[in-house]
Structures are given as structure tokens and as C-alpha cells.
Specification:
- Two copies of one chain form a homodimer.
- Chain A has about 300 residues and is mainly alpha-helical.
- Chain A folds into three domains: about 80 residues, Orthogonal Bundle (Arc Repressor Mutant, subunit A), CATH 1.10.10; about 60 residues, Winged helix-like DNA-binding domain superfamily/Winged helix DNA-binding domain (Arc Repressor Mutant, subunit A); about 140 residues, Four Helix Bundle (Hemerythrin (Met), subunit A).
- Helix content of chain A is about 60%, strand content about 5%.
- Chain A is built from 14 helices and five strands.
- In chain A, the strands form two sheets. Chain A has a three-stranded antiparallel β-sheet. A two-stranded antiparallel ribbon of chain A has the order 1-2.
- In chain A, a hairpin with a 5-residue loop joins strand 4 and strand 5.
- The longest helix of chain A has 25 residues.
- At the A-B interface, helix 6, helix 8 and helix 12 of A face helix 6, helix 8 and helix 12 of B.
- The structure holds a DNA duplex (30 and 30 nucleotides).
- Chains A, B: Keywords: DNA-binding, Transcription, Transcription regulation.
- Chains A, B: InterPro entries: GntR_C, TF_FadR/GntR_C, Tscrpt_reg_HTH_GntR, WH-like_DNA-bd_sf, WH_DNA-bd_sf.
- Chains A, B: It holds the Pfam family GntR.
Chain lengths: ~300, ~300
DNA sequence: AATCTGTTTTTAATGTAAAAAAAACGGAGC
DNA sequence: GCTCCGTTTTTTTTACATTAAAAACAGATT
């Protein structure tokens, strides 16, 4: 009735840790591991029990010891390490990504539950979050309306993003040079230069760096609404990034250079310069999203999913 | 298993309509009434059935006819006309209002379900919306954290509100004089003047007028995020308004005058003037909220509700 | 005293079932 | 053709049950 995703995720994490240990090494205590995995000791205990069952660990005098290194087959599939709720959110975004829904389409919970292999309760509870992302509208005693990733959506989200990011830079430049966010900015800048030097191989790692830069700026706003909104943006980009892979290396290089300019402006602490560079970068990013939308999702060859219209 | 709040609400609405009719008047058709009450014909049918049961209506040749006027006792209590979900949201806000929760307190679903007289499913689904309002934080596999209506909260919400409202005025002044929002503004202004003339008796109706003015402005932004955020503000104010009733008439009069200045600035279409008046008004409103928070909720004489800490 | 682990108690996650409401169907009357 | 209304089918809402995970408790060992 309740998935055991927490257990499976912890089990996998534990296997990864053991993979790096020597045979015979002794394992950490239950509470220690619970803390490092950020789960309860109850979960750690079931993980240990399973590890012993699988013959990976024995309990000898003086504690548990590693018997053999885990193989590929010992891990749980990644898909099972998501809670039912998280899985629903992911699959919903992936359906959008693949163009399985059309803007204006009505979605019904029972059908989605069947398609996603969960219960309507889970669907209802977790689809609600996409109301705040602006992708769904719920009408009482009726179905959900999918509003679509449309050009209007891009405009609205970017208008707010620009307001929020410009505002955040203001609090950012108020902070002293040795505050954690500025330290983080130093690191981020260094990673930008490293990535630029290796752009041919590593250009695909850009999105993570992008996320880190913008997040560190937004977080200095100390405003829960601004930070929550960045979470929305971040989720959205995580998924839409894959829509348009043309010129990926080229686009990432441009963005990297814009980031460096933007960082330079931040260091100057000159609001005018910051606004200019920030706006310029966001304009580029907005255009990229707009083109992705135009380009559209990878329409799957199969017909649109069996969801009533 | 499912409350019949829709039915009860419709039944009451129908009674109100009948109260104004003459005995013997014929009722509208099922589909007609369904449309005007914005419910399904299925619900209308059960309403009609109950009306006949209650002896308020008979079915004669040529349609249903009113037999007697409904009395007070015929109506369902207002409280029962809210869906379980809406009731949870309302009671939650009222508990906050009464100071039953302290900032930083952990809330647990089972306990709240008992207190509110519903199931945990309903609690979980509807408490989620207060995450978006910034009042709750949910930690996976654990309880909810009530973050409190604190001075920080007021600052954060007003910072965003100001950005959004200033931005919205820009789209507002782009619209032609005869567009619906400007027409609505004319009406709102007239009502302001009417209320000012009658301030001694009617000062309590100010919040509705406030809501209408700010909403018509926000809505011209055509931005779902801005409009959603105004919904949050609006909900919050609806409840916090009652925290501090001192100087109510005085404060409302000041706000009315500020509104009129603000409207005048909008008519001038001069961005500088608009910003000044808008900022001034929002500063006043912000200070009012800040004072309400300081003043605090009406601490109920009973101990804080039985929710685990 | 502090940490470790075995056991018990609570609580959150989530599937299932039943009632309410919506939607669809279909015939009758105009 | 169109509206009206009785019936049937779907779908949403919500309570409840069950399992996973967390938290609390308690004895043991260092």
C-alpha cells in the first residue's frame, strides 16, 4: 500500500558506499549511517537486514563486515527509487515533453491513474503542484485543464523571472565579499572557466552550472516567494531542456560567456551594468525557450495517450 | 463517504430564489436551473426531489409550482455548504487567526483530521495549498512545519506585491479608455466616493472595494503568476483583516483617499506619478499588516489546540 | 555518560471502496 | 430541429485500511 522507495534508495546508496570499501571492512553503526543517508534508523536496519540476506554483509564479532562487492544486479532499478508521488510528477512532465497532451485538453484522474499505474489519490495529490507551475487548472468536481507550454506561458514566466532576478541581484551586491554567496560565486566562476576550456567534451554539464548560478543569486533575496518561483523555473527547465538539442554546444557556449559577463558586472556592484548584463542573458534564455516551444515536443509516433478529451 | 455540500449549497440558493416568488409560480426547467446555479442537472434533480419532499413545491400539470415560502428552518446551516476541502482551508486559517499555532510548530495530519472532523486524505490534499502561501513547509515522510505569520512573512509578501502591482499598472495604462478594466475602474471610483460619503455607517465594506481595485489592476497584467499571487494576498487579507480592528474607520478612510489619488494617477497615465501613489498606498497597507502582526492574533483563553509539538 | 542495537509505538504514504456529482444517453413531446 | 426529463454511466470526492518509515523507548555494552 505504501511503496518502499525510501528503502530502495537507501539500499542503493549503501551499495555505492560499499563498492569503494575493501573486503572485510567494517560498516558504520546504524545511527551513523541513518544520519549520513538522512533516513531513520528503522530504514537502515531493513537495509542491513537485506544486505545480510543478499550475502553482501555478515555480522561478525565486533560489528558488520563487507563480504563481497556488490554487482550491477544487486542494485534496485532507478525507477523504483522514486516515491509514487515523485514518479507521478516526473511522468507527467515527460508526457508533456513528448507532446502527449495538447493545450486545452482535459485530463481525468482515473485515466491518468491507470496510465501511470498508481491510485487516483496519488494523482490528485501530486498533480496539484502543477497548478502553481501554471500548467494545470483545476475545476471543482470536474477534470484538470492542461494549459500547455505555449508562447504565452514562456512570456509570463520570463516576465516574472526577470523581475525576481533583478531584484535578487540588489540583495546580492549588498552582501560583504566574504559572505558564503560570494564565495560560492567564486567557485561557480572558476567552474565556468574550467567548462569553457573543456567545452567540446563537457558542454552537456552546463545546465547544472546554470542552475547553481541563478539559484545562488535568487537565494540571497531571502524571499520565500522568489525562491519558490525559482524552484518552478528550475523544474521546468530541467525538463524542457531536452526539447531542443540543436546547436546545443553553441548555445551553451554563448550562455557561459554571458554568465561570465554577468558575474563581472555583479563584482562591479554597479546596478546599471548588472541590469544590462542580466537582461541580456535572460533575453537569450527566453529566446531559447521560445524556440524550443516552437520546435515543440518530440511528437511520439504513437497516437496521443488514451486520455479523454 | 463524500459530503453533499454541492447539493446543500444549491438547495439553499434555490430556496433564496423561491423566497422572492409568488405562491403558485412555476419553477424553471431542470437544465435552466442547472445552468444558473452552475451545477449539474443531477444535482438540480435531487434539489427538486427534496423540495417536493419538504412540501415547498408540487409537481402539477405543466411543471413544478411553488406551494409555500421557505422559512428559516428550511435552509441548511451555512457551515454544511462548504466542501470538506474548503472547510479545512477555512478552519486552518481561523486557527492561525486565533493563534492556535505558534511559528515553528510541527503539525500532524492525524491530529488535525481529528480536530477538524475529517479524514487525513482531505487534510493532506488541502493543507498543501498553504505551502504556496508560504505558511507551511512540508518535509517528506514527516510532519508539516508552520512557519508563522511573522514580520519576515509580511516583508516578503509585500516586496513581491509591490513589484507585481507596479508592473501591472504598466499594462493597465496601455489599455484604451473604453476597455472593460477602465470601465470597471470608473465604477470602482464611483463606489469609493459613495462609500466616503457614507463612511460612518459603511466603513466595514471597504475590504471588498479594496479587493476589487487591486484585482482589476493585477488582472490586466495577463500573467497567471501575478494573478495567482494576488489570490494568495487576497486570501491572506481576508483573514488577517480581523486581527486588528482598532481605528478601523480611520484606517479605511485613509486607504480610500489613497485609492482615489492612485486612481487619479492612473488616469494621468504618468508612470512616475503612478509609482509614487502606488508605493505610498502599499506602504500604508504594509504598515497596517505589520501592526496587525505585532498586535497579534486574538489569543484564545483556552490553551493552544491539542496538536503535538 | 554515551553509544549501540533490539522492540514498540506513531505517523505518513498510498491503494481501495463507496457516495455524490457530472456527463452521457435516449425517448417523448412540440 | 429543439427542449425537457428519466435513466445509466463516468468521474470526482472523501473515508478508511494497510504498509513503510519515523520516532520513542529500553536494555546492553563499552
Amino acid at each position: 500500500m505504501k511503496g518502499n522507495a525510501v528503502f530502495k534508495r537507501s539500499y542503493n546508496q549503501c551499495l555505492r558506499q560499499l563498492a569503494g570499501q575493501a573486503i572485510g571492512a567494517s560498516l558504520p553503526s546504524e545511527s551513523e549511517l541513518a544520519q549520513s543517508l538522512e533516513v531513520s534508523r528503522t530504514t537502515v536496519r531493513s537495509v542491513f537486514a537485506s544486505l545480510i540476506d543478499a550475502g553482501i554483509v555478515t555480522v561478525a564479532a565486533g560489528g558488520r563486515r563487507l563480504v563481497r562487492h556488490p554487482g550491477e544486479a544487486d542494485y534496485f532499478p532507478d525507477l523504483q527509487t522514486l516515491s509514487a508521488g515523485a514518479a507521478v510528477a516526473r511522468r507527467f512532465m515527460e508526457w508533456i515533453l513528448q507532446g502527449d497532451f495538447r493545450a486545452g485538453q482535459l485530463l481525468n484522474a482515473a485515466e491518468l491513474a491507470r496510465q501511470f499505474g498508481t491510485s487516483t489519490t496519488t494523482i490528485r495529490e501530486h498533480l496539484a503542484q502543477f497548478q502553481h507551475v501554471g500548467l494545470l487548472e483545476r475545476r471543482p468536481n470536474s477534470s484538470w485543464l492542461y494549459k500547455g507550454v505555449t508562447p504565452a506561458f514562456a512570456t509570463e514566466i520570463y516576465d516574472v523571472r526577470e523581475m525576481f532576478e533583478l531584484r535578487s541581484t540588489r540583495s546580492f551586491i549588498e552582501l560583504p565579499d566574504d559572505s558564503p554567496p560570494w564565495r560560492e560565486l567564486d567557485v561557480i566562476e572558476a567552474e565556468h572557466r574550467a567548462l569553457l576550456a573543456n567545452i567540446d567534451e563537457d558542454y552537456r554539464t552546463f545546465p547544472q552550472l546554470d542552475e547553481r548560478l541563478h539559484r545562488v543569486i535568487h537565494e540571497t533575496s531571502n524571499n520565500r516567494f522568489i525562491i519558490d518561483f525559482y524552484d518552478v523555473i528550475s523544474t521546468l527547465f530541467h525538463y524542457t531542456y531536452r526539447w531542443n538539442r540543436s546547436d546545443e554546444k553553441q548555445r551553451n557556449t554563448v550562455a557561459l560567456l554571458e554568465h561570465l559577463d554577468y558575474i563581472e558586472a555583479l563584482r562591479s556592484r554597479d546596478p546599471r551594468a548588472i541590469d544590462a548584463r542580466c537582461r541580456k542573458h535572460l533575453r537569450t534564455a527566453r529566446a531559447t525557450l521560445a524556440r524550443s516551444i516552437e520546435f515543440g515536443p518530440f511528437r511520439s509516433p504513437s497516437s496521443p495517450a488514451g486520455v479523454s478529451a
